[in-house]
Amino acid sequence: MGIPALEIAISPSESIPVTAALPEGIRQSLTPAAPRVDPVTRLWVEGRGKKYLFGWSLDQASHLQGVTQLDPEKILGANDQLAAKEKPDHQKSKAEYLFNLLVPETFREGFARKDPIVIECDNRTAQIHWEMLVPPNLSHRVIPGSEFLGIYPTITRQFRNSFGVPPEPPPRFDHTLRVLIVADTDANRSLPAAKDEAEKILATFSEYKRTLRYSGIDQHVLVESLVGPDDAAYDNVLEKLMRDPPFDILHYCGHCEFVAEDPATSGWLFTNGEKITAHELTRVGCVPGLVFSNACSSGTMPPEAASVARRAMPSFAEAFFKQGVKNFICTAWSVSSDRARDFACRFYQVLLGVNAERRGYMYEAMSEARKSIWSVTPSGTRTWGAYQHYGNPWHRLP
After folding, report:
1. What is the pTM of this model?
2. pLDDT tens-digit map of 215-239
3. How crowded is residue 70: how many other Cβ atoms within 10 Å of its Cβ?
4. Where are the domains of the chain?
């Protein structure tokens, strides 16, 4: 059994006839909250000097379980080597080595449970590719890919920090899911796969809208897209993000620059070197609750560049959370454009429940998306482990 994390969910009340006949989305907005407990293994990992501290975390109570005392550069060096592996068997070998190097023996059982794992990490421990680790006691699994924690039972990240976030806006009552897709933003470095990705995601949301209409659910879906350097220009994107009512989902597929020396200046690239960074986000009154930063480029990244991106990425993600983002998906290094497209398409299919019996939870969408590309091609093997999710594994669209 995993340690339960308490969440508040809205459940319909069968004792009020007037709401019982309404679609689920409306009933949820009219009925009182009831507690729900979802199974999740919640851990925290913190870097202090040459030590890594591990502990259980439940609500505000934490219990120290283990300490690893080792030069952080040894850990991060093995971490960079893992990201550079291009064959599944090489990944597994290096991932098992890094797990044994990093995780105290007394704490390893926490990674062998069946529940989704939430890791609360600081900026240093967020640099570790937890999604790619393989506990030794999972290496015997016969399902390909299930040895990796990011595929089964899946890893979700959260920050251990003290910064406050903007207050949540009041709930809207128009029952509209608003989505903004931004793709292929830099005229100097065209990404044909990003255009294709935007078209496929639009098609997935169109199928989702048809499903809602046939099922009689009173929810509207409004999808806007800015594709290509002319439409997806710096000013156009910022103007869209600043409007009211805000978007619920922002999907970005294009280039991103990571600046290790000044992470706040990391951001999405547009024509003529313009960037949307954490500084621009401070001008956005209400950022989307779900941001998917599918910042991709063709080919692989040399080890020294991978090290720079690895150190900058947590700070870039943290900047979004300071502005109130609830769920943030990003890549830890440069990824294949084609596989990035495939990952995103599968992610939204599961999250929206297209061709499925129900809409998927966030952790399910991430797991299925990773599985869909992890061993398809060498570029898929090189790409799947780059994807990280910060937020709530049990998030699901209304």
Report:
1. 0.82
2. 777 778 999 999 999 999 999 999 9
3. 12
4. 4-39, 41-159, 176-390
pLDDT at 305: 45
Q: Which CATH architecture has domain 176-390?
A: 3-Layer(aba) Sandwich (3.40)
What's the pLDDT score for residue 79? 93
Whether 46 contacts 35, CB under 8 Å:
no
Residue recorded with tokens 């597994």: 92
Give the pLDDT confidence of 283-329 residue by residue, as tens digits. Answer: 887 889 999 999 853 223 334 444 445 554 556 677 778 778 899 99
pLDDT given for residue 277 in this prediction = 85
As a three-state string, the secondary structure of the chain is CCCEEEEEEECCCCCCHHHHCCCHHHHHHHCCEEEEEEECEEEEEEEECCEEEEEEEECCEEEEEEEEECCHHHHHHHHHHHHHCCCHHHHHHHHHHHHHHHCCHHHHHHHCCCCCEEEEECCCHHHCCHHHCCCHHHCCCCCCCCCCCCCCCCEEEEECCCCCCCCCCCCCCCCEEEEEEEECCCCCCCCHHHHHHHHHHHHHHHHHHHHHHHHCCCCEEEEEEEECCCCCCHHHHHHHHHCCCCCCEEEEEECEECCCCCHHHCEEECHHHCEEEHHHHCCCCCCCCEEEEEECCCCCCCHHHHHHHHHHHHHHHHHHHHCCCCEEEEECCCCCHHHHHHHHHHHHHHHHCCCCCCCCCHHHHHHHHHHHHCCCCHHHHHHHHHEEEECCCCCCCC
Q: In the block, which residue shows the tokens 């600046």?
A: 259
